[in-house]
Amino acid sequence: MPFHDHEENHRYAGTTNPKDNKYLHNDTTQNNKQYMSVNPKSETKSQNSESSSFSDLNKKLDREEQLAGLAPEIQAKFDEFEQLAEESKHNKTLWDRVLLDTGFKVTFKNKLHMTYMLAAFASIGGMLSGADQSLISGATVFLQEEFHLTSHEQSLISSLVPIGAIAGSIMLSPLNQFFGRRFSIMISCISYTIGGIICAAAQSVHQLYTGRFFIGIGIGLESSIPAYVSECSPRDIRGNLTSLFQFNIALGEVFGYAIAAMFYDLKGAWRYILGSSLFFSTLLLTGMFFLPESPRYLVVIQKKTGAAYRIWKTLRNMDDLDNKLEFLELVESTRFTEQSDLSSMPSL
């Protein structure tokens, strides 16, 4: 092979860098132009994706710069919160000792696990409502034979639960204001348990009426559970955890029918069927002794920022700046609301 032919071939294949090989560079450039002329949409998509990624990066950098500038102010705020938290440990009122210190303190290394446990136990309240609907359906078959119920008495036994739920809903607001979310749920468990015991041990129709009314009050009071779970959950999973209450209502209905089928062949089956609801209320009541009060309730209603911050640290990882900002927003929004209310009051 002549030397000049070998040199010419080397120009085409001797390097892999397009910048060093003018022939390869020209061919590649020409091919790219042809591809772009045939596929103009690909060029537009590429430009849009690049601009979007640059925009997201700029937003992230701007946010980090803003947070870096506010870091001393944020740290000063949380130094104040730490001091308030220490003071709240030593300066406790009777309300604090009865409502906040009742129960057992549970902490997890991964704070998200504490939130999951809170949502799982609190949402058991949905099973109380769901199970009662199916349990009374199974027990009615035996109640007619036991007490020789008329159609009026049978309908009254069923309707006294929603009537009691109305009464419980009316009581819910003042109980939530004074006792808090956690203790209101515990009161609902106690009312439901009392009603279940009366129904299981009833010797007359009127005792059944009383028991069913107490069960209804418990169901009405438990409607604060979604608010309690929502106020304690992080923003990114708040919707999922709150919907767990509705899921447990349907699950309770399934459990209720299964329980009624289990006791169907026993003597005095209706007592076991109605008494089985005590399992759910007792499980919820026991779980509430291990759960904290809502931090939002303590800040907004009770104005106990120190106690709220102590609980917040058990529910959030405080090394994450977003969790700090979320608590700071809660406190500052409460103060802003108070100032707005004071400014809107007419001067005397």
TrEMBL record:
It is a multi-pass membrane protein. It is found in: Membrane. One of its GO terms (cellular component) is membrane. Residues 45-56 have a biased composition (Low complexity). Pfam families: Sugar_tr. PANTHER family: MAJOR FACILITATOR SUPERFAMILY (MFS) PROFILE DOMAIN-CONTAINING PROTEIN, PROTON MYO-INOSITOL COTRANSPORTER. This is Unnamed protein product. It comes from Ambrosiozyma monospora (Yeast).
